[in-house]
Structures are given as structure tokens and as C-alpha cells.
Amino acid sequence: MNRNELNPDASPQAAYGARLRSVRESRGWTQDELGRRMEYSSVHISFVENGRKPPTLRFSQSADQAFGLAGTADAFEREYREIKHGGLLEGFPEYKAAEARAAEIRLYEVGVIPGLLQTPEYAAVLAASEVQRGAITPEQADERVSIVVERQAALDRARPPLVSAVLDESCIRRPVGDHAVMDSQLQRLVEFSKLPNIMLQIAPFTMGERRPFNLPLYVLTLPDRSLMTYTESAQRGHLDRESTSAVPMLSAYHQLQAEALSQAASVAMINTLRKGTP
């Protein structure tokens, strides 16, 4: 039987297939034997190993049961979820699902306009920059832009959530893309501020040390009035459902709102910046 050479560097899917073959062969199993243990045909196993068929959640869980990897750091289910969610931070997919049904969304962002308020063009420039740095693939970049659109669509429901957005002044002063992209993004912020369920505020640089957060923060109030917080660092996201930690963050968020500019003053700052953009 001819043996195809696999290139695990070709794509995440190819890496999954190459590892599946490697683990199978380390057990001394043929594709037929692995197929019997997983309840899949040997042809299906071959297609996944050669990258001709993408793995599914069920396939990955079956592989973990067959190899005894369920619940471990080497689980194929874990690798599948990394492929499915692309370059998204840990915890974000679950956060996004909760955000889509939240009654209230409170957010604080630093450096960039938050996804809920981004234009597709602004989001595309950020994603393209990640591709140029080799941090994500072009396919993952497309996924990120699609997620921005999906998240904003979730706000357009019969009973939309109340959204309180506090943006560090760096968000509106950091240029992203060309003049047209940035001006359109700032205009979008002004338009969002006019919606009855949106409260937009800018946390000015002059707040200095009184700013309670140094990293992005999201606080959700779910339909049952329970709280969920989501924070991000450069490398990971952290989702927390514990009220003991969510309540102090909510209190600090209220302090942030009290110190930030009013919505009218925030919109005035944005409009002044637009006029001053060369």
C-alpha cells in the first residue's frame, strides 16, 4: 500500500491528520482497526489523516475514547476546538454565546474599538495586520470579521440588551487603517450613541491612576440576572461565572463610569477628533 507523506505545517487540519496517523501507528493499529474502535470506516480515517475530510466533534471524541486521551491535554477534542475556533482566545466562544442572550452588556476596552462597535472595514484591517505578523491565517482573519458581524446582529433583536460601553481615549486616537476607515469608524460610534439602548462614554487620559482597569473587561447580566465576567490579556481570555468575583468588578465598573466623560462630552470629543483628522 502506498503511504502518502503528510505535511503537518500545511494547515491546522493537516496537523490534526498527521497526529492522528502518528498516534495510530504508535499503537500498531491499521486504519481498519482504528475504524472499528471508533465506529468509522477505514476510508473515513484515511481521509481525515490525509486532510481530505475535516474532523468533527464526534470524530474527535471517538478518537479520544479509542486512544484513552479523553480529558487530557493531548485530547483530539481539544485540538478540534482549536481548529474550529481558529485564533480566538480561550473562553471567548463561550462568552460570545452568552453575550448573544444577555440582558445587559457592560464593556471597557483599551487601544482598539470593541468588536460590538467595529465597522467591518476596521475589523478587516486589524485582522489583516495579524495575518501579516503570522499570528493567524487568512481563513482565521475572515472568521474574525464574520464574528464581528454576528455579534452585532445579535444586538438586533426584539428586546435588545442595554449596552454600556466605556472606551479608553486610546481607542479613538489610535489610527487603524487609512483616513476613510478611521473616519467611518468614528462616525459609527456617534451613530451607536444615538440608539436608545446604548450608553457610550470615553475614559480620558486625564483620569490617570483613577482608572480602575488596565485590561479589557466585559460584564454580562444574563436573563436570570446572574453575572458573568470576561477579561483578556494578550494571550488568553478568562471567563468567570462566580458572583464573588463578578460583583467587585461591577462595582469598579460603576466607579469607572462615574469618572468617565458623559455621553454628550464623549461624542463631542469624537466629533472634534474627526474634524482634526487630516
Q: Using only CA atoms, what is the Rg? A: 23 Å
Q: Which assembly state applies to the chains in this document?
A: single chain
- The proportion of strand residues reads 5-15%
Write down the overall geometry: elongated
Average pLDDT score: 88
> Could you say what the CATH architecture of the largest domain is?
2-Layer Sandwich
Number of helices: 12
From N to C, what is the helix and strand string?
A: HHHHHHEHHEHHEEEEHH
Please identify the top-level CATH class of the largest domain.
Alpha Beta
Low-confidence stretches: none
For the termini, the CA-CA separation is 66 Å
Class computed from helices, strands and strand pairing? alpha/beta
Care to describe what's here?
This protein is an alpha/beta fold. The protein folds into two domains: 73 residues, 434 Repressor (Amino-terminal Domain), CATH 1.10.260; 185 residues, 2-Layer Sandwich (Endonuclease, Chain A). The protein is built from twelve helices and six strands. A six-stranded mixed β-sheet has the order 3-2-1-4-5-6, sandwiched between helices. It starts with 11 loop residues before the first helix and ends with a helix. The mean pLDDT is 88.
